[in-house]
Amino acid sequence: MMSVGVGSEREGGDVSRIVLVHGIAQEQETADALESRWLPALAGGMRLAGHPETADRLWRDSRPGDDDCRMVFYGDLFLTGGRMGDGDSFDALSSEQQELASALALEWLGRAEERAASEADRDEAYRQLRALDPETSGRQGLRAVGRPALNALARLRWFAPLGMAFAQTFVKRALVQVTRYLTEEPVREEVQRRIAAHVGPETVAIVGHSLGSVAAFQAAHRVRSGLPLLLTLGSPLGLRTVVFDRLPEAKTVPPRVAHWANFADRDDLVAAVPDLASLFADPYGALRSDWTLDNGSDPHRAESYLGKRQTGAALGAALK
Predict the structure, then answer these.
(1) pLDDT tens-digit profile of 43-90?
(2) Which of 82, 235, 250, 297 could form a disulfide with 213 if both were Cys (CB 3.0 to 4.6 A apart)?
(3) 109 CB contacts (<8 Å, ≥6 apart)?
(4) Nearest to 210, CA basis, from 106, 33, 75, 313
């Protein structure tokens, strides 16, 4: 991979009260475009939770309010042809990375078999898992199931609301980007550098969705001053062997975080282990992990998480 040489599209150490960190498959977006969708959703959730004045400070009359809020954009690191190298090619991954991506695909298939909302998806996941046998030839066997596992995931209706072609693209990007973030230190440290540029004593909350929740958790472990709220949505942090066991940070609520709210839709397969309370040590009772949200037919959608009453209550309380 090429060395890190790209900077955030918003340089300059612009410390923000609310720091947003997006998730997987956003390489065609920009920070501004994502903010234009996240901010009204966040404000809507706070209004539902009974914080209308606080919501107005975030978004009012179709424009940002007075509260400073910035999206940390890192999708360009995974853009094919960018400075970081080949963006979403499974074949370009090392053998170790292909093994991790395969394990993640099998984990998602297993979760789909257990609790996918669609019975057809549960049945399809059951059939695909039994057709894949990573134990037959050891480690090479696990790597060998990678591409068949990708194809199996793409057959699930959960991943294919817009058709098979979209599902194949999303699944490939999701697996590759999570794998690269976890295994390539230059990529991970560049994401952390971009988050740190917006975090300071004035920061009230770091909000992370999907893969961004992993980055947000790691950033919260690095803050030097107190952080009132860490808010994670649709998080894969609970995936034991794939994500959780690979985290270099202590498996605890970040020590300078006053409150950590983690929310997940039961049907969100990316948030494969939604209840984090049993995994992360919480000596001061800071962690609330709730997986009762209902995001409808698109359970992993960021704006659906952001606009929920539970999300608005957590953020509104921190901002007040």
Answers:
(1) 999 999 999 999 999 988 888 877 899 999 999 999 865 444 445 677
(2) 235
(3) 125, 128, 129, 132, 149, 152, 153
(4) 75
Cα–Cα distance between 86 and 78 in angstroms, integer?
Answer: 7
Angle at 255 (CA atoms; ends 250, 258), nearest 5 degrees: 135
Per residue in 141-174, pLDDT (tens digit) is 566 677 788 888 888 878 765 455 556 777 888 8
CATH superfamily of 18-74+185-319: Alpha/Beta hydrolase fold, catalytic domain (3.40.50.1820)
Q: For the chain, what is the radius of gyration of the CA atoms? A: 19
Spatial CA neighbour of 265 closest among 235, 302, 237, 295: 295
Within 10 A of 48 (CB to CB), how many other CB atoms are there? 18
Task: Please state the pTM of the whole predicted model.
Answer: 0.88
